[in-house]
Amino acid sequence: MEDTKIHQNKELNIWEALFPVFVLVAMLAFNVYVYGDEALSGSNQFILLLGGAVAAMVGLRNKVSMDDMLEEVAKNVKSTSGALLILLFVGSLAGTWLISGVIPSMIYYGLQILNPTFFLSASVIICAVISIATGSSWTTSATVGIALVGIGDALGITPGMTAGAVISGAYFGDKMSPLSDTTNLAPAMAGTDLFTHIRYMALTTVPTIIITLVIFTIIGLNLETTSAPDTSNLLSAIEESFYISPVLFLVPAAVIFMIVKKTSPLVALLIGTLLGAVFAIIFQPEVVMGITGATELNVISAYRGVMDAITVETAVETSNDKLNDLFSSGGMYGMLGTIWLIICAMVFGGIMDAIGALSRISGALLKAFNSVFGLFASTVASCLAINVTASDQYLAIVVPGKMYAKAYADKGLAPENLSRTLEDSGTVTSVLVPWNTCGAYQSGVLGVDTTAYIGYAFFNYLSPFMTLTYAALNIKIKRLAGK
């Protein structure tokens, strides 16, 4: 997002500035209580608009015109245009990577690394690979995660342990995948770009997942298993539906190479989408035909199959019900909910900015937390508080992201510091709260109580401590140029 100056309003006191935030959190908490997992379907977005309306009333009371507020909203929405385009390309990439066999191949080879002694650490790796490929921790848990919990149970491993391993790997992938909505949302809120965010986030995320793997390896070496896991049914179902080959990994390899070479995110994602489309036509003609119901592959059926995968919801049926949900993609259409959320968040943030609330709150924060570590700690605490009160990981990113952007800039900190902290504390801790949408979802899908897996979701509760450790020791804290 553009680096725009936050407005000052000397007539606004700190309690007036905080009032819209308190009202927003209260409304969101009630809304999630009513709608549960369905809150993101639109009601949370409208609540953000209501929060903006409350902020507008505070602004009108403090002599801020409606025109000024709407102008700031327009600037905010415009500043996210790049992020919104990236989200659309992410959806298109996910669609072509599904029908080209890239994602199924990742899953196929990942399942084969299972070993009884290293089952838990292998589960982390499998879920990490799948979640990176799909960009969804929820989908990973609802498919392979369920299978792994069942396999672990057959081996005599406590379901809570396996669930903790599944969640640790799934949320690592959710954080690091350019396909993930939270990974796109965090930099959009903080004011940086997607791949800068991912590269900077790797500095804390990779050490955390390594520590997690070491812990699970130690646990696995001290466990007694009863038999070898059987994944033959899953592997057979994948082979029946897709052509599986290491050659398909050329597509993600090309995108990774472009990311490393700092290619524009839009260019890298577009090329990744087009490569996936070409590979789908070459290697998966039956899948392409199956999408449109065509009896032969020709220019029309190939075009329609690829375009459907790019733009709308697409699913590839297999002989195994556990895989069917995994082998589906929403395409560009599937990203509209996140885009809607960003736009509504920009309305709330824009009005808060226009009335001077962000400036007032930022000033209070800078006085209360007069050190870099204090600012990081307050960000982590805010994310945790919203995960507990508003019960939604997206809002734990959106609200602190907009509120703290100015404070980080005033401290001379690059925006990727904020985006990384938002993910290290907002994204991953949501699943540790039983009444949060993520905690309720994972518990219900895996069939394991939150209290049973919380002690084994090492990655999720180590992540906030890792980002605070970096801040305390001043490790890889990037400064703005000239500061």
* Category from helices, strands and their pairing: mainly alpha
Report how far the terminal alpha carbons are from each other: 20 Å
Mean pLDDT: 86
How do the helices and strands follow one another from N- to C-terminus?
HHHHHHHHHHHHHHHEHEHHHHHHHH
The number of helices is: 24
Give the % helix.
Answer: over 70%
Major sheet summary line: 2 strands, antiparallel
Give the DSSP E fraction (strand runs of 2 or more residues). under 5%
Shape assignment: globular
Q: Tell me the total number of β-strands.
A: 2
Task: From the structure above, extract its key features.
single chain, 483 residues, mainly alpha, 24 helices, 2 strands, disordered N terminus
Structure description:
The protein is an all-alpha fold and 483 residues long. It has 24 helices and two strands. A two-stranded antiparallel ribbon has the order 1-2. Helix 2 (43-61) runs parallel beside helix 17 (336-354) and helix 6 (119-134) runs antiparallel to helix 7. The protein is globular.
Question: How are the elements arranged and paired?
Answer:
Blueprint lengths: L13 H22 L7 H19 L4 H14 L1 H19 L2 H10 L7 H16 L2 H18 L4 H18 L4 H10 L3 H28 L10 H10 L8 H11 L4 H19 L1 H8 L6 H13 L2 E2 L5 H4 L3 E2 L6 H19 L2 H12 L3 H18 L3 H18 L4 H13 L9 H10 L3 H4 L4 H15 L11
Antiparallel strand pairs: 1-2
Helix pairs in contact: 1-2, 1-18, 2-17, 3-17, 4-13, 4-15, 5-6, 5-11, 6-7, 6-8, 6-10, 7-8, 7-22, 8-10, 9-20, 9-21, 10-21, 10-24, 12-13, 14-15, 17-20, 18-20, 19-20, 19-21, 19-24, 20-21, 21-24
